[in-house]
Amino acid sequence: MIIMALDHVRDYISSAAMTFEPTDLSRTTVFLFFTRWITHFCAPVFAFTAGIGAFFYQQNGRTKSELSRFLLTRGLWLVLLEVTVVRFLWLFQVRLEGSLVLLLVFWMLGLCMIFLAALIHLPVRTLVPLSLLVIAGHNFFDGIDPARFGRFAFLWDTFHQVAGFPFHDGFVVITYPLIPWIFVMAAGYCFGNVLGWDPDRRRKFVLTVGTACTILFVLLRALNHYGESAHWSHQKSALFTFLSFLNTTKYPPSLLFLLMTLGPALIALAWLEKFNFSAKNPLIVFRRVPFFFFLFHIGFAHVLYIAINAIHYGWHSFLLLAPPTFGSPLELFPQGFGYSLPTVYAVWLTVILFSYPLCRWYANLKQRRSDLWWLSYL
Fold first, then answer.
1. Which residues contact 36 (CB under 8 A, 6 or more apart)?
2. Nearest to 222 by CA among 230, 214, 212, 232
3. In sequence order, what are the residues at sequence separation of 6 or more whose Cβ sits closer than 8 angstroms to the Cβ of residue 118?
4. Which stretches of 14-123 are DSSP H helices?
5. Which of 104-108, 153-157, 196-200, 226-230 shows the lowest per-residue confidence on average (mean pLDDT)?
6. What is the CA angle 260-266-271, rounded to 5?
7. What are the backbone dihedrals phi and psi of residue 175, each rounded to the nearest 5 degrees, phi first?
């Protein structure tokens, strides 16, 4: 969650973010590249651990039918929030008509939960190989042209590739196609069983799987053939060639992107298990209220974006527009709009410092008022 906030602050503050992708090796710097690259771990871990969370929800004496109901209602709730509250916090826009609608991570997580509500009724011995097969094999279908499906092309776009389409004089962009995210979450649900094993056996298994995924990433990436549409290539220096090696596709996530992120994440999980963090540790505080933190940090980062630019440029109408990162025409903004990478990190730390006490307060509230069922949706 903390790393994710860095990426979102970069979207608002970085001058480079206004004009090019930070993974564009022809224009980026090493520090800018890694500022973006480190945040690649967020979405895969969110989807995977959402599946783990579903498993533990069921372990508290609930039936699969009760879990299905919860996943269905929570999934629909997240999708609704994506196009209302979350969109407003990102863009400070309310109207959908004639506007840009970005379907981002809440859209993906919500719809994945809806599909998981059905998938949990499959036996684990069936769901595990099915999930791994889809994750490993979905890149075989990268070359399919959605146009071949005629009027149903939008379904292929929704499930398999990034796409945009007109909507009531506006434009909708699906940045998170659902395949393979649905099965990343399903794999996390199955993985929940592992976390019930005795500690030594669990750590050994998690470390083995994480290491195997990481090694498989290196081997497949070195072969430069399957699992990633953007092949690595020799660059102007050995360091930039290494960046090319790491520069895998997130939208939609390639097999190598998932191996590159989930493999080290599992290794980190095995390593972190030997530590005992206090309830006041920021890692624990933000973990306990991820949804609350997400909403607060987006809105606060947006407010800081307006405040900083108002101080720098004075009050202008462009301050109420979404930054060019989110599709506003660059010509509406001053030349060189945005700030350096050190400023990005300073604003990020400010967001984290202001978020911590609020998140701690809310986490304690949720713990005290466990009788309020609706708090589980917040």
1. 7, 10, 21, 22, 23
2. 232
3. 68
4. 30-37, 42-59, 64-81, 87-91, 105-119
5. 153-157
6. 125
7. -90, -20
